[in-house]
């Protein structure tokens, strides 16, 4: 037992000598300190934020012929400055053959212009901030919709599926008062005891190529699709007979009837 205790005391003495030595190039023998010689490798730190940039936000905005893109710059912010989500930023004015639209972007969004390629690039101040990353692609999508709206316009086609379902466009209504001069009204007959009358929003043009089709056209996509959703709400597609009001290429999977 004495030789074993002597070896243990010798190992502890050598360990204290090596660890307390100021020399930087001193290393411990692996057979003396196996636990220190087999340290696990350091792993990368856990991060909740994605290192990838926004695929939609980083895509450039191309301007078709006849469309102008003007930016009224807001006071510049430093790269490390923290900005509020609701703080106003630059104002973008997009004008084309079909009209003009303006949009105010947040203060942390920067838009760069390339004269040679006629493209605009959307950037944010801090790519690690979750709120800024969330709004990066949203701002770019809104700007792209505005560019398409003033150049080509947006449209929505509604299909009325059902026995006796039909729609007409009227210049006046019985249950509604016009909100602006020359407002049109959509009159729906979709199975109720009375016709449904809805005023067409300003900036939207409504027509009925067929009694069971409604065509909505406008410059602002959000207004066009919102009005289409309000019309659809009167007869949502049901899954048993497939009746209802369908928007664009909307379909519904039919269910089997319950047989008692």
UniProtKB/TrEMBL annotation:
* Metal-binding recorded as keyword: no
Provide the Gene Ontology terms for cellular component: mitochondrial large ribosomal subunit
Xref: Gene3D superfamilies: Ribosomal protein L6, alpha-beta domain (3.90.930.12)
Question: What Pfam families does the entry give?
Answer: Ribosomal_L6
Q: Where is the Large ribosomal subunit protein uL6 alpha-beta domain?
A: 86-153, 163-245
Q: Which UniProt keywords apply?
A: Ribonucleoprotein, Ribosomal protein
Q: In which residue ranges is the amino acid composition biased (Polar residues)?
A: 39-51
| Name recorded for this polypeptide | Large ribosomal subunit protein uL6 alpha-beta domain-containing protein
Q: Name one GO molecular function term.
A: structural constituent of ribosome
Please give the family membership noted in the entry.
Belongs to the universal ribosomal protein uL6 family.
Presence of the UniProt keyword Transmembrane helix in the record: no
Entries under PANTHER family matching the protein = 60S/50S RIBOSOMAL PROTEIN L6/L9, LARGE RIBOSOMAL SUBUNIT PROTEIN UL6M
**Record-level GO BP terms:** translation
Map out region (Disordered) in residue numbers.
39-65
